[in-house]
Fold this protein.
Amino acid sequence: MTTVIVLTIAGLLFGSIFGATIMQAVNNVAQSINTFLQNLQSIFQGNTGPFPIGDLSLPPTPTGTLPKLQLFLTQGDDSQATHLTTVPQNESPLITFWVKADQGVNTTVVLVLTRPDGSKSQFGSPVETNRDGSPLNCGRWATEAPAGDYQMDAYIGGTVVSEVTFSVSPRK
């Protein structure tokens, strides 16, 4: 019984001396975690960064002269095929997007697609151009694209260095 009383008194003394400090420390940790989670959510949604575009944040533009790039689309995986400006809606999943830089240029490019409704989003992951000057396959739509007018922009940092406009014609 004496042990219980001694432990209870020791607990009360410890709590009264250090309780406020411990509670403040726990509160600070909880606030830090909450702030971190809010910032993380903002970053994932693309709302943080110097150049927000919808659900995308672009890094600052590098200094110096930016390279000129060519952005185009073809049917299938042949970069030498005819460059398209109109795509039938039912064939849109067959269309490949390409970016080409001059020989000797290797730079990271972010593609941003503007849809017919005006919304913008990043198309695929950032890509690095081929140093040998050959066109780089940037991918294709996974599903049939809605009909309408589109624009694809190639960004280096926050600067558009190339664009291509095209239309997806509705099914007949």
The domain at 54-169 is CATH 2.60.40.2550 (Immunoglobulin-like). Helices lie at 2-44.
